[in-house]
Amino acid sequence: MFNSFKSRRNICEKVLVSGIKPTGNIHFGNYFGAMKQNINIANGGEYESYIFIADYHALTTERNADNLRKQSLEIAATYIACGLDLNKVILFKQSSVPQVTELTWIFNNLITMPFLMRAHAFKDSEAKNSEVNVGLFDYPVLMAADILIYGGDLVPVGQDQKQHIEYARDIVGFYNRAYNVEEFKLPKELIQKEIGSIPGIDGQKMSKSYNNHIELFCSNEDLKKRVMSIVTDSANPEDKKNPDENNIYKIHRLFLSEDEDMKLRAKYSNGGYGYKEAKENLLKVIMKWREGKKEKFDDLMSDENKLVKLLEKNGNLAREVAEKKMEIIRKQVGLV
Ligand code: TYM
Asked: What is the pTM of this model?
């Protein structure tokens, strides 16, 4: 099954790299912000695609080993259930490639603390007075290593990751200048402009840490509870409403074609479209979207061993590519 991926290295000029942290179940912010693009581009076959489960990054916050293992498999199952073509992509665990931590260490020596202190994630954690661990502080460097070790050109991500890609680009310059080489190329982010940041049920950015998210494959009861608790104003059903200020609409539109979107917008602005009806319609749309996918997800999760083997096999392929790169890097920096 994966041999066909191997041969892609010779036919694809460009490389796609993208990761998701296994710190909870996948939600629609992850899906519409990054996964959907990853799947479409990878399945299109023009890119040599590396999609991974960022379990090293998850260690910055996750302390429960069983959760980490399980959540990692859930990401793999989610990708497959949502249609990722395993013949066109290498789907693996970040930790199958310890070479990324080696490259992170090499990069660490080329950057300064003030450079990393500008990172939003670091500043947010500090503002909350939480004690920032060194892993979290170094997070952008590990992410740069993830992208650069495979020679990533394109990195589909949500708006919140933009700064991390900028860090990766800066690190390309630091390395190439320090060793007077043209070893790493500049990666570019792909952010869906019109959706950039997907709101959660309270209107803030959808995030596991705000607990305002809607999971792709939660139970039907949980899905209903989440959708029905989307925060709205107190307008009456007959009132005319501005869709762009409405949390139900902002989530609903993600599932629609342009034409369907226009029709939904008109319902809001004409009046006579109450929030209860709007939520029920959104629930129907999500249920329809899940048809077939949730069953596939549940089926994949019922045989965890099979997923473990698949990830191991793919991890070996990714590691081979990374090791080749590191052989060059070790020579350039003088380790061998
Ligand atoms: P993570 O796990 O937080 O999120 C995975 C992807 O989902 C996107 N996303 C969103 N997009 C739009 N609206 C939202 N509300 C929303 N919530 C999440 C994120 O932008 C991301 O693209 N650091 C990364 C994982 C990572 C990575 C990488 C990504 C590690 N190495 C290398 C790309 C390349 C992260 O924590 O994503």
From this structure: 0.95
* Rounded distance from Cα 126 to ligand 1 centre (Å): 20
Beta strand ranges found along 160-208 (DSSP E): 188-190
Q: Detail the DSSP E strand segments found in 38-106.
A: 47-53, 89-93
The answer to whether residue 88 sits within a structural domain is: yes
User: 139-186 pLDDT, tens per residue?
Assistant: 999 999 999 999 999 999 999 999 999 999 999 999 999 999 999 999
Residue range(s) defining the domain that contains residue 53:
14-196+304-333
Q: Say if 139 falls within a structural domain.
A: yes
46 lines ligand 1 (CB under 6 A): no
What total number of domains does the chain contain? 2
Instruction: Ligand 1, residue 206: give the atom nearest the CA.
Output: 15
Residue by residue, what is the 3-state secondary structure of 129-151? Answer: CCCCCHHHHCHHHHHHHHHHHCC
Measured from the Cβ of residue 189, the count of other Cβ atoms closer than 10 Å reads 20
Q: Does residue 48 surpass a pLDDT of 90?
A: yes
CATH of the domain at 228: 1.10.240.10
Instruction: For residue 149, give every residue at least 6 positions away whose Cβ sits within 8 Å of its Cβ, in sequence order, or none.
Output: 97, 99, 100, 103, 321, 322, 325, 326
Average pLDDT over the chain, rounded to an integer: 95
Cα of 336 to ligand 1 centre, how many Å?
A: 35
Whether residue 124 is contained in a domain is answered as yes
> pLDDT class for 129, splitting at 50, 70, 90?
confident
* pLDDT class of 131 with cuts at 50, 70, 90: confident
Ligand 1 pocket mutation pick from 147, 153, 160, 197 by most atoms within 8 angstroms of CB? 160
Could you tell me what percent of the chain has a pLDDT over 90?
91
User: Atom 4 (ligand 1): residue with closest C-alpha?
Assistant: 20
Residue 33: DSSP 8-state: I
Higher-pLDDT residue of 156 and 197 is 156
Residue 225 Cα, ligand 1 centroid: separation in angstroms?
25
**258 CA distance to ligand 1 centroid (A)?**
26
